[in-house]
Design a protein that fits this description.
The chain has 113 residues and is of the alpha+beta class. Helices cover 17% and strands 19% of the residues. It is elongated. The two termini are 71 Å apart.
Length: 113
């Protein structure tokens, strides 16, 4: 359905009532079964702004506040363990120029030197 100017859910919820403008100022009404793809024209969903008296009445209306009861936690931690093989190994090769021969040996083992 394309170019819809009004849309509403039909009785029962299994269809959508769509109104489409036609030249001459009249409208065609279609009952489209769901699921349906509908494109609408501008002006279908214009915002409605409250009037000034309505806004003033809304400011004076009391707002009820309540605190919801906390639910008991449903999750419980049974254990916490690292998966095997995820640990990293560190080898201290030395400090400063002392570490140079060890670095060369490791690079030779890896086949990079």
């Amino acid at each position: 359905m394309t170019g819809v100017k009004a849309i509403s859910v039909a009785d029962g919820g299994g269809a959508v009532r769509c109104e489409q403008e036609v030249p001459g100022g009249s409208r065609d009404v279609y009952l489209v079964p769901l699921p349906a793809v509908v494109t609408v024209k501008e002006g279908l969903n214009l915002p409605r702004y409250p009037s000034v008296p309505g806004r003033l009445r809304a400011k004076r209306k009391p707002v009820a506040a309540s605190m919801p009861a906390r639910l008991q936690p449903r999750l419980e931690m049974v254990r916490l363990a690292l998966p095997p093989g995820s640990g990293k190994q560190v080898q201290v090769l030395g400090h400063g120029s002392e570490a140079a021969p060890a670095v060369v040996d490791i690079l030779a083992e890896l086949g990079l030197v």
